[in-house]
Structure formats: C-alpha cells, structure tokens
Design a protein that fits this description.
This protein is mainly beta and about 120 residues long. It is built from no helices and ten strands. The strands form two sheets. The protein has a six-stranded mixed beta sheet, with no helix packed on it. Strand 4 and strand 5 form a beta hairpin. The model has no long low-confidence stretch (mean pLDDT about 95).
C-alpha cells in the first residue's frame, strides 16, 4: 500500500502557476505508476496526469502543454507543476496509485483559480 499527503494548493489568478507536492510512503512506491487527479465543483474525479516508475508520463488533453508531472523515487515524492492556470482548473487535487484496485482518497489540496 501507498499512503500520500498532498500539499501546495492555494488561490491563484488566471495565468498564474502553482506546484503541488505529493509526499508518499510505502515500500512499493518505486515500482508503481502514480497519478494526479482532480475533482471540480459538481464534477466527477478525473485523472490529470500519470507517471510510471521509470518516468514515462501521460496527460489529460485539458492540461497538455500546461502541466508537468515528475517524481523523485529516492524521496518518494511526486510533483505537479501547473502553469497558465485557468478558472476551469479549480478543483481539489489528489495524488494516488494509478492502478490501485481500491484506492483510499485522502485530504487532497484545493486549487482555486480566480480573479
């Protein structure tokens, strides 16, 4: 199992940037694909970006060219650099094991993009 704690969210103006951090624990972290997810108001949770243990990445079409996911296996950390933020990016962002059968969703971190 992997336990995660997300941080780094906040209030930012459109066009601004934020970097989210996922601090993970668990012996399997280094061999699993991790993902960042988000759930906006009145919307279902969606996968934003994923990164394999070896560093291969995939992004939702809505964030391609704006967001970058990365990881540091030695530190058991996953990051999401978010640039050119839009109001529609407003959501609670979560980090988790991409292929967990029954993932536990933690607190997440709130990102609000507004003028």
């Amino acid at each position: 199992q992997v336990h995660v704690v997300e941080s780094g969210g906040g209030l930012v103006q459109p066009g601004g940037s934020l970097r989210l951090t996922c601090a993970a624990s668990g012996s399997i972290f280094s061999i699993i694909t991790m993902g960042w997810y988000r759930q906006g108001p009145g919307k279902e949770r969606e996968l934003v970006a994923a990164i394999t243990s070896g560093g291969s990445t995939n992004y939702a079409d809505s964030v391609k060219g704006r967001f970058t996911i990365s990881r540091d296996n030695a530190k058991k950390m996953v990051y999401l650099q978010m640039n050119s933020l839009k109001p529609e990016d407003t959501a609670v962002y979560y980090c988790n094991n991409r292929y967990a059968s029954r993932p536990y969703w933690g607190q997440g971190t709130q990102v609000t993009v507004s003028s």
